[in-house]
Amino acid sequence: MASTIQLDRYDRQILAVLQHDGRISNQDLAERIALSPSSCLRRVRTLEESGLITGYRALLDARKLGLALMALIHISMDRHTPDRFDHFEAEVGAIPEVLECLLITGQDADYQLKVVVADMDAYQELLLQRITRIPGVTGVHSSFVLRRVVDHTALPLGG
User: Residue 14 CA to chain centroid, in angstroms?
Assistant: First the structure.
């Protein structure tokens, strides 16, 4: 089990701001949380080195890229062995349309995938030519996203 990193109020403020604006300058960040720029930069670097900040990314508009169809796919496997799961996870990890792969419990499935594609034809191609051909996949159940109701990337930081 991973250990929890202890954060003070400045660390929480830094993380809150960076989760919403990862491109903010150190000067602006320092002013926003009332710290000196050198102290702020030192804290950000410590948070990065600790592994709490794992990276900075641009969030893209899938529709503007022609990726209008999002689906959730529940996958059932034939055997629950480490080798079978490792192979499946490596295979889906190499599929660019797979945004998320979760090993789950409490369902009639072993995995849930979140995928994004252009349209139903592209979905059919992904499903039949890539996903169902992975050894061990025995069941697939698809649900299509009609609308994103909540779409956060920021984690709750507590207080």
Answer: 21
Q: Is there a contact between 90 and 135 (Cβ–Cβ < 8 Å)?
A: no
pLDDT tens, residue by residue, 23-79: 999 999 999 999 999 999 999 999 999 999 999 999 999 999 999 999 999 999 999
Q: How many CB atoms lie within 10 A of CB 120?
A: 12
CA-based radius of gyration for the chain: 20
What beta strand segments (E) does the chain contain? 69-77, 98-103, 111-117, 137-144
The C-alpha atoms of residue 107 and residue 74 are separated, in whole angstroms, by 9
Q: How far apart are CA 114 and CA 73, in angstroms?
A: 7
DSSP 61: -
Helices (H) and strands (E) in the chain, counts: 5, 4
Helix (H, G, I), strand (E, B) or coil at 73: strand
> Which residue(s) pair with 98 in the sheet?
115
Enumerate domains of the chain plus CATH numbers. Answer: 9-49 (1.10.10.10), 63-144 (3.30.70.920)
Query: What is the pTM assigned to this prediction?
Result: 0.88
